[in-house]
Amino acid sequence: MPVRALIFDLDDTLIDTHGQLVREAHWQACLAMHAAGLSVHPDELMQTRQHLLVTQPREEINALLANHFGFTCQTIIKAGFDAYFNPVFSELDLFPETLPLLQKWAEAVPLYLVTSGYEQAQRRKVELLGIEALFQQIFYVDIARLQGKREVFAEIHQTLGGEPREIWVIGDRITNEIVAGNALGMTTVWICQGECAHILPQSEQEQPHFTVKQIHDLDGLLQSQPVWKKRASVLP
Ligand SMILES: [Mg+2]
After folding, report:
1. Which residues make up the CATH 3.40.50.1000 domain(s) of the chain?
2. Is 3.40.50.1000 the CATH number for 5-16+93-233?
3. pLDDT, tens digit, for every residue of 78-117?
4. CA 14 – ligand 1 centroid, Å
5. How far, in Å, is the centroid of ligand 1 from the Cα of 12?
6. Taking Cα atoms as reference points, which of 179, 148, 181, 177 lies closest to residue 166?
7. pLDDT (tens digit per residue) in 142-170
8. What's the CA-to-centroid distance between 47 and ligand 1, angstroms?
9. Which of 21, 31, 157, 208 could bridge 190 with an S-S bond, Cβ 3.0-4.6 Å?
């Protein structure tokens, strides 16, 4: 089966968002919710937030946290949501040794980046990483668009043609890009790491075709695809 294109997620797939940004983003969300009127000490908010993230990983954490303390005010929930998805940061790196791999893959097939979040924050990440030129196209999917990635994946397939399974989707979220790629018949690779590593498949639609521990493991998988090998070998 030829590999026609690779579609990557950004956070916790190409960059260590969980290690580099997530804790700070959760803390900034706690501060923002406190400032918006959630009258619980930010340290306690942070502790409770972390506990809720583990015990109820599929729920929206800002609403969950506010409700936990008896607050239902949308302003408080929105303050946490906005701060979490738009944290202030000034440094960012790809996972070690990821850049040469992306360069190598980009020589063989078109790469796409499909990232959801606040566009401004996601654009800032891409800019800080300096990876724009590696991708055929970068899509910023608004966090409010629930089916956003699926729609973009379908658009990419329409542009490329061929069998959907020839397009590989690589990401860390079972409930986001993996389920979206599966729904369209694409080949899905779950990078089981970071904040969502404990969210396991609960249905056939959530079951990835391949599961790896980190982005580097993708190279071995691609090399085992006969047509990928053929395509890559004709390159200078
Ligand atoms: Mg991700």
Report:
1. 5-16+93-233
2. yes
3. 999 999 988 888 888 999 999 999 999 999 999 999 999 9
4. 8
5. 5
6. 181
7. 987 777 999 999 999 999 999 999 999 99
8. 23
9. 208
